[in-house]
Amino acid sequence: MKKSFGVAVFVSAMIVAGAVAAQGMLVDAAADKVIAKYQAATCDQLKAQKSEPPTEKEKIALDLLRDDSKARVAFVDKIAAPVLNKMFECGLIP
Q1: What is this structure's pTM?
Q2: What Rg, from alpha-carbon coordinates, does the chain have?
Q3: Long-range contacts made by residues 79-82, C-beta under 8 angstroms, separation at least 24?
Q4: pLDDT tens-place string over residues 11-51
Q5: Tell me, what's the pLDDT at 22?
Q6: What is the C-alpha separation between 41 and 10, in angstroms, rounded?
Q7: Are 46 and 90 in contact (CB under 8 A)?
Q8: SS3 of the chain
Q9: Left if phi > 0, otherwise alpha if psi is -120 to 50, otherwise beta: which for 67?
Q10: CA–CA separation, 78 vs 81, rounded Å?
Q11: What distance separates the 2 farthest-apart alpha carbons in the chain?
């Protein structure tokens, strides 16, 4: 009985760990996309994009980041320096 319980706990832990890892990969992919967008865009393009509404994929990502503080911290930690540097260079930060 104890052995089957231990196996069930192990399997459950592996499923949760897999879900967390998958979510981490999604956050990393979204952060990489944002960084690439800012690095490839000119200042004029960034200024024009600032007023555009978010796409459906961006809305889903924003909802995830609003609901999951750990994902939000990981995302912001990854994008902060490259995005803010580009915004500063473009005069988007007063």
Answers
A1: 0.69
A2: 19
A3: 79/31, 79/34, 79/35, 82/35, 82/38, 82/39
A4: 444 444 444 455 678 888 889 988 999 899 999 998 888 88
A5: 52
A6: 46
A7: yes
A8: CHHHHHHHHHHHHHHHHHHHHHHHHHHHHHHHHHHHHHHHCCHHHHHHHCCCCCCHHHHHHHHHHHHCHHHHHHHHHHHHHHHHHHHHHCCCCC
A9: alpha
A10: 7
A11: 66
Tokens representing 62 are 């924003």
Structure tokens at 46: 């960034």
Look up residue 65 and give its two tokens: 């980041």
Residue with tokens 């930060």: 93
Which amino acid, 45? Q
Rounding to the nearest 10 degrees, give the CA dihedral for residues 21, 24, 25, 29: 180
